[in-house]
Amino acid sequence: MSGAIFGQTYPFRGADEEASSAKEDSSSYGRALKIILDRCIPLLVLGRKNLSNSWLPQSFQELYQATLIFQEHMTKAYESGKRAMMGNEQQEKNLMTSLIRASQANVSPKEGTTGSHQEGLTEQEVYGNVFVFNFAGHDATANSLAIAICLLATRPDVQDWIAEEINAVLAGVDSPESSYEAVFPHLPRCLAVVFETVRLYTAVAIAKSTGSSPQPLKLGTDTVLIPKNTMIIPNYSALHTHPRYWGNDSLEFEPSRWIVPNPHVPKTNDPHTAVSHPKEHLNEPANRNSPFVGWSGGARGCPGRKFAQVELVGVLVGLFRDFKVKLVPLKGEDDEMARARLLDQIRTDTCMRLLLQMLHPERAVLQWRRR
Length: 371
Fold this sequence. Notes:
By secondary structure, this protein is mainly alpha-helical. 47% of the residues lie in helices and 11% in strands. The chain has helices at residues 2-6, 15-20, 29-38, 40-46, 58-86, 95-103, 123-153, 156-169, 180-183, 188-200, 236-241, 243-246, 271-276, 305-320, 335-349; strands spanning 108-109, 116-117, 208-209, 215-219, 222-226, 231-232, 259-261, 280-282, 323-327, 350-353, 355-358, 366-370. A two-stranded antiparallel sheet has the order 1-2. Strands 3-6 form a two-stranded antiparallel sheet. The longest helix is centred in the middle third of the chain and has 31 residues, at 123-153.
């Protein structure tokens, strides 16, 4: 995430390593972001300035310091990128450089004034966009991944199904050496797992507004006029599980519903052609009346959609190429009883806390085994 946003990468750390190194890297971007995301509700309720009051709990003081560190990292990245752009220096492609370009767009003297007129993003708007990308891209993807792995633990057949695809596409290729262009377009089954998880458990309930004027809503042959400044939150669960669109098994986790035969596959026994022209592809609804809005849609759809899809597919490839996951039964349970228990936990333990998440994922004890 930090690489895509700032062009800075950090080594992965497990929970034990994170705890032991917390004091050592207390001023790092990664540590500051983690504190902000874990304690974002007090930040939203009280605001950053109020968190510095000495009578507030120590955790609030730490949160305040984390916001200062995060702001410092954003400011350094912004100023460095702006200097590089003004000097026509070569820059890495990341979110910050794209936002800086947008902030410098159409900067020209305004007629009748001595200053400059800026129509691009302001500095504060750049910072706001960076934080939103961090917030939505960090927790939303992680929460969806946790649910996807639990769902896959209940379906060994689906694990084998995606492993078959992964090993066919990556035959003889090390995962770190693979490229997006050569691999991602040929993993529709893995992407189907992502879409099916988001269909059943949409991470973000995006609210829409009619804005400053009334908006017409067509319902069949009728038109309803929705008043101005009206907040609208679609019922994602109803839309994503309605049998009219998804069939009688609409409540079931069935990634294969997204897969259809590829009509453009050439008739050949050449294995290289088979990989470059997969027999299957993802049947993603593309029209504006689609019943799937997992990443919203239209001009204001989720800008991190593709990033999230690639990230989730990449993790699935890394995990299920050589491993499979199994739910550990409790005492007295057989495999079917354990499966039913986990499905019930996913349904009852998943709720919205800013984002949709499993409240107690640690209760789902899973075991990873090499294939």
